[in-house]
């Protein structure tokens, strides 16, 4: 401190302390020299000395010095608190470092396991791909084997079907057609081939169906008709077309017999006619009438006893006016029964089966 600011009482401090600290005398003028009184005086002197020092130290100082002192104390306290919390944070960071280091080690171990797992997964995927490729090859081979088996089965079924048809063809009923002219003396219809005044021809025919097969023929029925063409159209597709049209329809059926045994014959009489009025005369020089070609066509439907399948025997026949020669027929000229004959039309490609053609 400066001398100007020094307290005047400070100069008397030693003096006061000396005066106060001097031992007291007894009434007899002698000092009390007991141990107890000595220790009490000494303590009292210390207290007085400290009290006076503090009073001299802090009394009379300026406020700025007090503030500086308190700020230093507060700064020290704050520094201690800050140091304490900083130490705690450092310790926490140290612990966190060890935790993070452990996590890093675990992550390294997990990364190694992950890489290993990825490698194993890749291996499994590669193996699965190879197995899938092998399976695809096996499927292709199996598909080829199935196709080959199906083809073989189809071929076998085809062979069985052929064998069944062959067996059925061998054992089924077969109907052959026989035509003959019916001569009824004095009858206009039912006699030989005759013509009326309008050029319409008529003839009586017996249609006989003979079973040449090994099974019974059931529900036999016949369809039959006739027509004429000019002589120059003897080679034509018209007879076959008319036969197919007639036999593919469900009309004009005539029942013959319900049952025809093997080697037995069932027959029916039919009177048929045909028109010639619209047929042009290709040979006007002929005196006996214009020449024509007469066709008789039809079919016989039946069932075999061992099958419900319907069978059919079709026929197209050409009529001739002589039994021994291919004599033609002229409109208006009567053909006797013993001369009228029928021969299979050679240009008919149907299912014809003719066993005997009798006059």
Question: Can you walk through the features of this model?
Answer:
The protein is of the alpha+beta class. It folds into 2 domains: 61-171; 175-357, no CATH class. It has 4 helices and 11 strands; from the N terminus they run αααββββαβββββββ. Helix 1 runs antiparallel to helix 2 (35-58).
Characterize this entry briefly.
By secondary structure, the protein is of the alpha+beta class. The protein is built from four helices and eleven strands, in the order H-H-H-E-E-E-E-H-E-E-E-E-E-E-E. The chain has helices at 13-21, 35-58, 63-171, 238-248, and strands spanning 175-181, 194-195, 201-211, 217-230, 254-260, 265-274, 291-304, 310-320, 329-330, 341-344, 354-357.
Topology record:
Blueprint lengths: L12 H9 L13 H24 L4 H109 L3 E7 L12 E2 L5 E11 L5 E14 L7 H11 L5 E7 L4 E10 L16 E14 L5 E11 L8 E2 L10 E4 L9 E4 L2
Parallel strand pairs: 1-11
Antiparallel strand pairs: 1-3, 2-3, 3-6, 4-5, 4-7, 7-8, 7-9, 8-10
Query: Structurally, how many domains make up the residues?
Result: 2
User: Which sequence of SSEs, written as H and E, runs from N to C?
Assistant: HHHEEEEHEEEEEEE
Low-confidence runs = 1-32, 355-359
Mean pLDDT across all residues, rounded? Answer: 76
The number of strands is: 11
Structural class assignment? alpha+beta
Globally, the shape reads rod-shaped
Estimated radius of gyration: 74 Å
**N→C terminal distance:** 180 Å
Provide a count of the helices.
Answer: 4
For the report, how would you describe the main beta sheet?
Answer: 6 strands, antiparallel
Residue share in helix: 40-55%
Strand content: 15-25%
């Amino acid at each position: 401190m400066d001398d100007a600011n020094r307290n005047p009482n400070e100069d008397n401090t030693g003096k006061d302390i000396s005066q106060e600290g001097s031992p007291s005398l007894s009434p007899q003028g002698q000092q009390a020299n007991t141990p107890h009184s000595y220790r009490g005086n000494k303590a009292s002197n210390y207290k007085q000395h400290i009290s006076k020092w503090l009073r001299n130290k802090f009394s009379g100082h300026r406020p700025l010095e007090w503030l500086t002192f308190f700020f230093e104390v507060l700064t020290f306290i704050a520094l201690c608190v800050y140091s304490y919390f900083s130490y705690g944070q450092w310790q926490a960071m140290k612990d966190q470092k060890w935790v993070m280091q452990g996590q890093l080690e675990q992550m390294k171990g997990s990364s190694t396991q992950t890489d290993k797992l990825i490698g194993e997964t890749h291996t499994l995927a590669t193996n699965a791909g190879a197995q899938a490729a092998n399976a695809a090859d096996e499927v292709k081979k199996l598909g080829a084997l199935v196709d080959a088996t199906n083809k073989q089965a189809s071929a076998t079924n085809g062979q069985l079907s052929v064998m069944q048809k062959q067996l059925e063809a061998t054992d089924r009923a077969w109907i052959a057609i026989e035509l003959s002219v019916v001569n009824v003396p004095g009858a206009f219809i039912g006699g030989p081939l005759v013509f009326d005044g309008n050029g319409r021809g008529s003839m009586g025919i017996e249609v006989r169906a003979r079973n040449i097969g090994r099974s019974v023929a059931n529900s036999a029925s016949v369809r039959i008709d006739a027509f004429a063409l000019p002589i120059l159209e003897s080679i034509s597709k018209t007879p076959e077309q008319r036969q197919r049209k007639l036999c593919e329809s469900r009309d004009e059926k005539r029942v013959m017999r319900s049952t025809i045994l093997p080697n037995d014959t069932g027959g029916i009489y039919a009177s048929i006619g045909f028109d010639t009025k619209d047929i042009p005369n290709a040979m006007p020089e002929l005196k006996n009438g214009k020449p024509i070609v007469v066709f008789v066509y039809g079919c016989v439907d039946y069932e075999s006893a061992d099958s419900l399948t319907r069978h059919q025997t079709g026929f197209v026949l050409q009529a001739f006016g002589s039994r021994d020669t291919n004599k033609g027929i002229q409109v208006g000229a009567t053909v006797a029964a013993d001369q009228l004959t029928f021969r299979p039309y050679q240009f008919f490609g149907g299912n014809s089966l003719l066993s005997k053609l009798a006059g």
